[in-house]
Design goal:
This is Ubiquitin carboxyl-terminal hydrolase. The chain is an alpha+beta fold. It is about 30% helix and about 20% strand. Strands 10, 16, 20, 23, 24, 25, 26 and 27 form an 8-stranded mixed β-sheet that branches. Helix 2 (about 80-90) runs parallel beside helix 5 and helix 7 (about 240-250) packs across helix 11. The protein is globular and about 80 Å long.
Length: about 575
């Protein structure tokens, strides 16, 4: 950049003519800066990554125009397309190179949503705001997410869309997939059965023509009621209606069925997934009259015989049976099964399946035997049941983390989760054969979350069935609108001592945070009762679904309810 030969280490030793040329070049650059202060300059090349530095006035933010982010234009100079292609090729779509070369320049971490500055050679993590600090100090407004390839603008404070950049990202992604497929094919010594990557939907010419001929669009406003529809009770079928309401308002499940992703291979008309697809169409058609789910009830009776008849049934039991049948009927939608033998890649497993880690520790040699089992829901004991409840102490346990309080003496959802994940002494009557001691020894067992599902369903065990007792437990459980599952992860086990959570809270780590979107309640007794559901329609709008009747509810109505099944959705999703 100085104009001197690469092997020159002493400026004073350079010929006078070189020094005169250098001074002239510096004057030209100053003049260029005076005339074109907004023009980015090429500043360096490092490992094939060409960086540019933009000069922008702080606070010079213009309104967002239909063309997109106004700050992108400062990047689009000189060879910006080639520069962007290099970034996608070397650091975004190529996994092996990225894992070795990309670490946060501030904390040295590989994870935490690593971003790369588009104006200079700088990698930093998004979760801990290190890339934000760099952008503020250097006034570099654009960065690229190295995991997903999205462009983030720090002036707009959001991920942005630019048609030209998106086209480059797609082209480089297709090239990377093709190369990965060729490498995998060469390694496996065959040229077929290469798994196709998911690509975004692009309208065909026929679809574009239909869109042009049907210009009328339905606007989705904050008070829109599309998706809200009552269900007729066909005779003690409130247990089915409440679960249907929760499933039809599960965001990813809704997107799956409304995008016609299911490919039915069943010969007869007995596919529950096809019926659910039709049900979603009915719910989001805009019709306001209550729907009669007679065909859904018939298919449930056909595939889950224990639920057949007009007797009262358990909503939790119906949920598990419905997920099981849906899983069996749609497991071929995504091709081959996953590498994990416990579950497949069907939409049900993608959304609802998590991994529960069980650690059994020998009390003699302290050897640990670990198993991981899939789960669709987590059943939580309540105080007042015949199962001894863990005495809880307020503070330092995650309750403050989830916005819960023991001030009123109420049991919280965090309390129940603490009890669920506490170490449990199995006793002398349940000795296990230790692989280290080669003999039967007493042990302790502890459950933690190895893999969290996208939708976490918590089953509060209100119905107690034992040899001596059959009753409903009406203990009030306080549950939050937002839930952080970090303290209950297997990765947090090391910092857990005797049921107390001593780990520091990272406010920027959102990987394990959930938002409440549905609550199923039971009113009445064990012998006679009725199920209703609270569902979230928009961000802060809640509705109560009581069979055919839909009424608006407040957030306080939801939080004050008894709570039997609690449905939480992950706030941040990772898509590969």
């Amino acid at each position: 950049g100085c104009g001197l030969p690469d092997n020159c280490t002493n400026r004073d030793a350079a010929p006078a003519s070189w020094r005169r040329d250098l001074i002239a070049k510096k004057k030209e650059r100053k003049l260029a800066h005076a005339n074109h202060a907004q023009r980015p300059l090429l500043i360096g090349i490092c490992t094939g990554f060409i960086a540019q530095r933009g000069r922008y006035k702080p606070g010079a933010v213009t309104d967002m125009s239909p063309a997109g982010c106004p700050h992108v234009n400062g990047f689009k100079v000189d060879n910006w397309k080639q520069n962007l292609r290099v970034i996608y090729q070397c650091f975004v779509w190529t996994r092996k190179r990225k894992a070795k070369s990309c670490i946060c320049h501030m904390c040295g971490a590989h994870l935490n949503r690593l971003h790369s500055c588009l104006s200079c050679v700088f990698f930093a993590c998004f979760a801990k705001k290190h890339i934000h600090e760099h952008a503020k100090s250097k006034r570099h407004n654009l960065a690229i997410d190295l995991l997903y390839g999205g462009i983030y603008c720090f002036m707009c404070q959001d991920y942005i869309y630019d048609k030209d950049m998106e086209q480059i990202a797609k082209e480089e992604q297709r090239k990377a997939w093709k190369m990965q497929g060729m490498t995998r094919t060469h390694t496996q010594r065959h040229t077929h059965h290469v798994k196709a990557k998911y690509s975004t939907w692009e309208p065909t010419k026929r679809e574009l023509e239909l869109l042009r001929h049907n210009p009328k669009r339905r606007r989705i406003t904050s008070n829109c009621t599309i998706g809200l529809r009552g269900l007729i009770n066909l005779g003690n079928t409130c247990f089915m209606n409440c679960i249907v309401q929760a499933l039809t308002h599960t965001p990813l499940l809704r997107d799956f069925f409304l995008s016609d992703r299911h490919k039915c291979e069943m010969q007869s008309n007995s596919c529950l997934v096809c019926e659910m697809s039709q049900l979603f169409q009915e719910f989001y058609s805009g019709h306001r009259s209550p729907h009669i789910p007679f065909r859904l009830l018939h298919l449930v009776w056909t595939h889950a015989r224990h639920l057949a008849g007009y007797e009262q049934q358990d909503a939790h039991e119906f949920l598990i049976a419905a997920l099981d049948v849906l899983h069996r009927h749609c497991k071929d939608d995504n091709g081959k099964k996953a590498n994990n033998p416990n579950h497949c890649n069907c939409i049900i497993d993608q959304i609802f399946t998590g991994g529960l880690q069980s650690d059994v520790t020998c009390q003699v040699c302290h050897g640990v035997s670990t198993t991981i089992d899939p789960f669709w829901d987590i059943s939580l004991d309540l105080p007042g049941s015949s199962t001894p409840f863990w005495p809880l102490s307020p503070g330092g346990d995650g309750s403050a983390l989830n916005g819960e309080s023991h001030a009123t003496g109420a049991t919280t959802l965090t309390d129940c989760l603490r009890r669920f994940t506490r170490p449990e002494h199995l006793g002398s009557s349940a000795k296990i054969k230790c692989s280290g001691c080669h003999s039967y020894q007493e042990s302790t067992k502890q459950l933690t979350m190895k893999k969290l599902p996208i939708v976490a369903c918590f089953h509060v065990k209100r119905f107690e069935h034992s040899a001596k007792l059959r009753r409903k437990i009406t203990t009030y459980v306080s549950f939050p609108l937002e839930l952080d599952m970090t303290p209950f992860m297997a990765s947090s086990k090391e910092s857990r001592m005797n049921g107390q959570y001593q780990q520091a809270v990272d406010p920027f780590n959102n990987d394990n945070k959930y938002s409440l979107f549905a609550v199923v309640n039971h009113q009445g007794t064990l012998e006679s009762g009725h199920y209703t559901t609270f569902i979230r329609q928009h961000k802060d709008q809640w509705f109560k679904c009581d069979d055919a009747i839909i009424t608006k509810a407040s957030i306080q109505d939801v939080l004050d309810s008894e709570g039997y099944l609690l449905f939480y959705h992950k706030q941040f999703l990772e898509y590969e």
